[in-house]
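User: Need the bound-state model for copper (II) ion:
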Amino acid sequence: MTDHMNTRLTRRSFVASAAAATLLPVTARASVPTLTARPGQIRLLPDEYPETEVWGFDGQVPGPLIRLRQGQALTRKLVNQLPTPTSIHWHGLRLPNAMDGVPGMTQDAVQTGGDFTYSFTPPDAGTYWYHSHHQSTEQVARGLYGVLIVDETEPPDVDHDLTMVLDDWRLTQDGKTSEDFDRPHDWTHAGRLGNFIHAVSVPQVTTVRKNARLRLRLINVATDRIMEISLIGLEGKIVAFDGMPLLQPQTPERLFMGPAQRVDLVVDVTADEGEDALIASHERDGVFAIVEMPVSGSSTRRGNIPALPDNPHHRLTTVKDARKVPLKMEGGAMGGLREATFKGQRLSIQEMVQLGQAWAFNGVIGMPDEPLLRASTGETVMIEMVNDTAFAHAMHLHGQHFQEVLEDGSFGPLRDTLLMARAETRTIAFRADAPGKWLLHCHMLSHAAAGMRTWLHVT
Ligand SMILES: [Cu+2]
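Assistant: Bound-state model below.
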């Protein structure tokens, strides 16, 4: 598909194809509600194209919206009707290690015909998502993800609460998912980038009034693409990153969202009646509206946008006695990595390429036998991450959020995924609160598959 085609499709796709949202009833049931991973078909492109074959939870992309009240338990039985094993990772949620959904570390992959029941109570309100964590470069690209919202006890006063699921599809001319999930060129560069950026609004937008207040929950579910987003005809504040409230809401400028990152905004519609309020994507060949909200009617504009009620997640006050560990990120195209360890063997660059491996943490490609660090619960740890590569990376910690340690000694917002530009050094810290084996990896899923994975052991 050419850039020109992408241009046309991007602009035209939204109204035709915003997927219908399905709300699972959250009432108590005698039997455990299921999420069935299975093939399905969705309308991604305009009518003159065929539907696109996907893998989705309950055959849908995004999968069923899961919505809980803060303090409410989540229980879902994953049933696997795919031709390959799978699992579910509940991204950004604090949960028992055994519920984290990482095959080979916290559970066995769920085989075809098998099932696995996930059950836990998320302590924090916010915008989260769930996705396959098995062969995820392929499975997430095929559509195995969904939205998970935990509502605050007292949610902010808004007219519309809209989740925008931003994906980056690589489609063939006949609208099929391109099945090249492991091209060496993608894995050693910026990952498997698509040719069709597509937003799904949950629920679907019909019209909004001028001055209406919206909560927008943006989720970048792309396997590898950094989304560059701006709002047109909408004015307000960023109120949360990765689900966690900002103590002081920020005025949004252009938003750079790494894979897996979320941004919650509370905005007022400033576009006039008859115009559209827009969410726009900045791409190499131009700026495109990926969500268009027609403005019809008007109401009175509200006043200040308050911060969201805070979550019970720990925030750092000091890192004076923190256990420190360096994490050097190396490899990829145009990087200096010539030799690294993979499964206990020293590999040359030629051998890495043959094995489809490209990236290393501290000289080790892929999951090391020994964790990056061991910590006791309650201990504060600090990871100095040096990006000695020619590419950006989206570093994701499982199990709890971290904060960046800023140059002036203050702490950044709570996040679960940190977007690092090439050649950057960024230090994160957190109090290790949950026992278990927790992954730390690049959420550019092609990079993770090609080696950017390690783990922490909290006991
Ligand atoms: Cu990466």
